[in-house]
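Technical note accompanying the year-one report. For the benefit of new consortium partners, we illustrate the data format agreed upon in the data management plan: each record pairs a sequence with a structure-token string. No post-processing was applied to the example shown here.
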Amino acid sequence: MIVTTTNAIEGKKVQDYKGIVFGEVVTGINMFKDIGAGLRNVFGGRSKGYEDELKVAREEAIEEMKERAAQIGATAIIGMKMDYEILGADNGMMMVTCSGTAVIVE
């Protein structure tokens, strides 16, 4: 299934709009990643643990959105948008959401 941030797919014509679909993932950040990130905050550098966690959550959210689009008969998703939030009393949860318009293309 094609997923794009644009409102059209080059060479394809939208035949039908099926509706807006979403993908959401909420994941916990474990204490060892927090310790490593805290050290990098002091000394500088990238946080590989957080980057890996973010990548997995992003991929899962897109897959969930694609599954929901397929369930309603869509063959593509256009206008996809992604958002990130930190949640929880101790900021220990990360939420990744994506949304787009499920369409049928020829």
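Partners are asked to follow this layout when depositing records. DSSP finds two helices and four strands in the chain.
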